[in-house]
Amino acid sequence: MLPLVLTVLVLVVIVGVIVALVAWKRGGKGKARDTDYKVFFVLGICFLPMGVMAVATENMGFLGMGALGVVYMAIGLANRDKWK
User: What is the pTM of this model?
Assistant: First the structure.
């Protein structure tokens, strides 16, 4: 068990270093994009039924998926005027 945990930890550190190097190399050259809130609403429509169906099979581990769907739908609807 311990070698598996150490392997995962080492991989996370390596990926983190690579991401940090790429971000440092870009140096803020990337242009920030506007958020498309319609995508949040569509993701909410997808996650909510999947979470409800997974919980209906008595697997409470997927309760978060349904909650995430509700949150995404709320974010999308709250910013409906910014949809693209």
Answer: 0.61
Statement to judge: residues 25 and 39 lie in one domain: no
Helical residues (DSSP H) of 27-62, grouped into ranges: 37-56
- 16 with 46, same domain: the answer is no
The pLDDT tens digits for 22-81 are 888 877 666 767 888 999 999 999 999 998 888 888 788 788 888 999 999 999 999 999
**Distance of alpha carbon 37 from alpha carbon 44, whole angstroms:** 11
Find out whether 77 and 41 touch, Cβ atoms under 8 Å: yes
* Residue 64 lies in domain: 33-84
Closest CA relative to residue 82, chosen from 44, 31, 32, 39: 39
